[in-house]
Design brief:
The chain is an alpha+beta fold. Helix content is about 35%, strand content about 20%. The strands form two sheets. A five-stranded mixed beta sheet has the order 1-2-3-5-4. The chain is elongated.
Length: about 230
């Protein structure tokens, strides 16, 4: 479940990311009534098995079974909640065409939310790993170990968002950032899934890496995520 919108007096429009059909919007009739048996199952952060039937414009929900409900666990932790909200918004932005299959984005979101709800790592590390991998699935994988423009082997000292990651002195455009080696190593660890290295990173290095991830994401989405500004980076 990505988000819900009120419709009329008792209904909701529900936005889902599905395994086989990508992003889907549907109508849940009567779920805002106190007598509804499925209303509580159709909330953001819920992993559900859902059945739909065809409607005039949007499909209608006929049956819902909860597979995992992460909302209750995340609601007690502001950092985890805001990180999860940013993940949901990213998933929706990364699937701009309705009903276009996106199995990798689906699997990435399910795994990320499970890790977040299970408190497996720092919420911000999980979020940054998710953002980097979501970008990679979309075809925008940043380069951290070689020049993003010419392929010259690193390590390099400059990070250019528009160029696609780290760049060598020859390819370095004006205005490039100069991140610390620790931040670059952390970004590479998050992208590759090296959690031993990621978990041991100092907080200042994590914050520096998060800034680069946010800039890279904003460049490719062409504007900033609303929810990303609320993420607790402490």
């Amino acid at each position: 479940m990505l988000r819900t919108q009120k419709l009329g007096e008792a209904d909701r429009i529900v936005t889902l990311l599905t395994r086989e059909h990508g992003r889907v919007r549907c109508v849940a009739r009567g779920v805002r009534k106190t007598s509804s048996r499925i209303g509580a199952r159709l909330e953001p952060f819920s992993h559900v098995d859902i059945q739909l039937y065809s409607g005039k414009s949007l499909d209608n929900v006929s049956q819902v079974e909860t597979l995992a409900s992460h909302g209750a666990r995340l609601s007690g932790d502001y950092g985890a909640w805001t990180a999860g909200t940013a993940m949901l918004e990213t998933a929706e932005r990364m699937t701009p065409e309705e009903r276009e299959p996106s199995v990798q984005q689906y699997a990435l979101l399910v795994s990320g939310l499970r890790s977040l709800a299970g408190n497996e790592h720092s919420a911000t590390l999980i979020l940054d790993a998710y953002l980097l991998r979501s970008l990679a699935v979309a075809g925008w994988s940043p380069s951290f170990d070689q020049c993003a423009k010419c392929g010259a082997p690193g390590p390099h000292r400059a990070f250019a968002v528009a160029a696609g990651g780290m760049v060598c002195p020859t390819c370095r455009p004006p205005g490039s950032a100069a991140p610390s080696q620790g931040a670059v190593q952390l970004l590479g660890a998050l992208l590759s899934g090296d959690w031993t290295r990621a978990d041991s990173a100092q907080m200042r290095v994590q914050r520096e890496a998060s800034g680069l991830v946010a800039a890279f994401l904003q460049w490719h989405l062409e504007h900033q995520l609303r929810s990303l500004r609320l993420v607790d980076r402490q």
